[in-house]
């Protein structure tokens, strides 16, 4: 437990500041930049960029590619720039052919997003190494967290600086240059950092690498065929998973159901709602996926020292499910009564006058199911054999088609709120499938699904917090004025602190985590 949660702590700390800075800058951009530009950049162009990166990263980070030969493993990782380049050509063609606003974007702006994805993919081998070789020292975990945080933060800071330094520059061009700047900074950070790690021999997990050239591909070593098959199998899964994850963005990009203004509203609400997902849950998913993959694939002789025994695997699965479950319930309880306040503070009238509060309230429920799905899917994918992976592919194919259809239908009848409802349905179905796979793998030793629920006393505190914050909403939040908003926020803050203190002290799972981290810190 200690090694897993120690790496989680490093990842969370590394990305927290970057997320806060990015969040604050986005608040300013919503008030400064035209709504149509934000809708175009944050939904349509970002979808192009994220699709390329996701399909490049996901197979290499989650497939069973560790099979004993270190040089072959490194060679396989260096396929990432090739994969991203091929994907960029395909995705740009599809975007230009089918996107409803492709004629509104210059080639300079459009190409900046796939090119930045290619640049970032050159640094992907170092990210995969950081995740796969992460151990109790936490050094590589810190490197990965700092790199991801820097990538998030640098682009937004560049956009903010560009608005002040070049006030006459077209806003889309500023976003385009920020993509290049952030990607190059991320690439240099990884190359320079790993060069010094090897020169100073400061990272114990890298002891098998004698020089920086060991991180580079060697044609004479070739690539393990089984690992290559695993990557391509995971790649097909990743395509379907991407459709499931960003189905709403694809519907918005390739249809005209929502105007660019309403797309900007939806994206802004999603950014507010996903602050917990991006700041807390995403780092947890990243570390847990690597941990499950390393632990279950014990046949790897290269990385066998990084794996725990089977008992720890089951215990950590149960523990992390409980942790993300409680986080999800807390998000639901506080998300509903504070949605209107958060929307007003973050986006002003743009979000308040366009149904932002309703969207954020719905998103609170989505946080709970996506938190559980991230962990169950990571474990399920790591435990699948070839037949199960094939069956999972068929499941993803069917559910992705249904998900796109449900997104379209619900958007017609519910506008952008339909996207969130469709996502909740999608995540719930995936959780059921993943849990079935986990039970098949662990058998009688599988933890009860009720482990995601808070303890009885914590549930009582959650209920009391919901009552207090809802009453506060009726008294203060419905009345305009800064003092009323501050009073409403203060009541929520007090409830959250009391709830957190009780959970840490009286929830056995959280108490054990805090105790283990405290012991490691003292050591």
Structure commentary:
The chain has 523 residues and is mainly alpha-helical. The protein has helices at residues 2-32, 35-62, 70-77, 80-98, 107-122, 124-132, 139-165, 171-200, 225-245, 247-254, 260-273, 275-296, 310-347, 349-352, 356-383, 386-414, 417-442, 456-477, 482-506, 508-522. The protein has 20 helices and no strands. α13 (310-347) runs parallel beside α18 (456-477) and α19 (482-506) packs across α20. This is Protein RFT1 homolog. One of its GO terms (biological process) is dolichol-linked oligosaccharide biosynthetic process. Belongs to the RFT1 family. InterPro entries: RFT1 (IPR007594).
The helix content is over 70%
Task: Write the H/E string, N to C.
Answer: HHHHHHHHHHHHHHHHHHHH
Q: Into which percentage range does the β-strand content fall?
A: under 5%
- The count of DSSP E runs of length 2 or more, i.e. the number of strands, is 0
| Overall pLDDT confidence | 83
Q: Roughly how many Å is the radius of gyration?
A: 23 Å
- Give the distance, in angstroms, between the N- and C-terminal Cα atoms: 16 Å
Based on secondary structure, the structural category is mainly alpha
Could you list the spans in which at least 5 consecutive residues all have pLDDT below 50?
A: 298-308
Largest sheet: none
Summed up, the helix count is 20
Which key phrases capture this entry?
523 residues, mainly alpha, globular
List the helices and strands and how they pair.
Elements (H helix, E strand, L loop, with lengths): L1 H31 L2 H28 L7 H8 L2 H19 L8 H16 L1 H9 L6 H27 L5 H30 L24 H21 L1 H8 L5 H14 L1 H22 L13 H38 L1 H4 L3 H28 L2 H29 L2 H26 L13 H22 L4 H25 L1 H15 L1
């Amino acid at each position: 437990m200690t090694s897993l949660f120690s790496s989680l702590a490093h990842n969370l700390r590394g990305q927290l500041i970057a997320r806060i800075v990015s969040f604050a800058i986005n608040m300013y951009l919503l008030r400064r930049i035209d709504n149509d530009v934000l809708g175009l950049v944050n939904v349509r162009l970002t979808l192009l960029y994220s699709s390329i990166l996701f399909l490049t990263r996901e197979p290499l980070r989650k497939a069973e590619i560790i099979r004993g030969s270190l040089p072959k493993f490194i060679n396989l990782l260096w396929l990432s720039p090739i994969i991203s380049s091929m994907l960029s050509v395909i995705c740009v063609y599809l975007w230009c052919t089918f996107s409803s606003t492709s004629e509104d974007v210059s080639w300079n702006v459009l190409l900046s997003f796939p090119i930045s994805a290619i640049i970032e993919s050159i640094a992907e081998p170092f990210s995969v190494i950081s995740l796969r070789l992460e151990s109790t020292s936490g050094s590589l975990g810190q490197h990965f967290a700092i790199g991801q945080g820097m990538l998030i933060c640098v682009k937004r800071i560049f956009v903010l600086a560009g608005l002040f330094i070049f006030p006459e520059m077209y806003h889309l061009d500023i976003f385009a240059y920020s993509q290049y700047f952030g990607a190059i900074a991320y690439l240099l950070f990884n190359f320079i950092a790993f060069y010094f790690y090897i020169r100073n021999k400061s990272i114990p997990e890298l002891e098998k690498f004698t020089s920086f050239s060991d991180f580079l591909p060697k044609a004479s070593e070739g690539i393990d065929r089984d690992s290559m098959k695993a990557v391509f199998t995971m790649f097909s899964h990743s395509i379907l998973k991407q459709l499931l994850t960003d189905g709403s963005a694809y519907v918005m990009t390739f249809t005209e159901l929502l105007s660019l203004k309403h797309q900007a509203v939806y994206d802004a609400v999603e950014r507010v709602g996903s602050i917990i997902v991006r700041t807390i849950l995403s780092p947890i998913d990243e570390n847990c996926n690597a941990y499950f993959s390393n632990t279950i694939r014990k046949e790897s002789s290269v990385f066998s020292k990084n794996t725990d025994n089977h008992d720890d695997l089951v215990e950590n699965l149960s523990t992390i499910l409980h942790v993300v479950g409680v986080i999800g319930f807390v998000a639901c309880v506080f998300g509903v009564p504070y949605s209107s306040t958060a929307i007003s503070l973050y986006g002003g009238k743009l979000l308040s006058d366009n149904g932002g509060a309703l969207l954020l309230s719905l998103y609170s429920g989505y946080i709970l199911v996506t938190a559980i799905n991230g962990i169950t899917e990571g474990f399920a994918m790591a435990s699948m054999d070839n037949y199960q992976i094939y069956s999972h592919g068929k499941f993803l194919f069917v559910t992705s088609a249904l998900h796109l259809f449900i997104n379209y239908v619900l958007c017609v009848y519910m506008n952008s709120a339909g996207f969130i409802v469709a996502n909740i349905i999608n995540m719930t179905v995936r959780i059921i499938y993943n849990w079935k796979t986990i039970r098949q793998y662990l058998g009688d030793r599988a933890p009860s699904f009720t482990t995601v629920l808070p303890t009885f006393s914590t549930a009582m505190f959650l209920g009391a917090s919901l009552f207090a914050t809802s009453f506060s909403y009726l008294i203060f939040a419905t009345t305009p004025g800064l003092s009323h908003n501050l009073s409403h926020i203060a009541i929520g803050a007090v409830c959250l602190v009391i709830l957190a203190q009780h959970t840490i002290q009286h929830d056995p799972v959280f108490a054990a985590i805090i105790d283990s981290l405290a012991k490691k810190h003292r050591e």
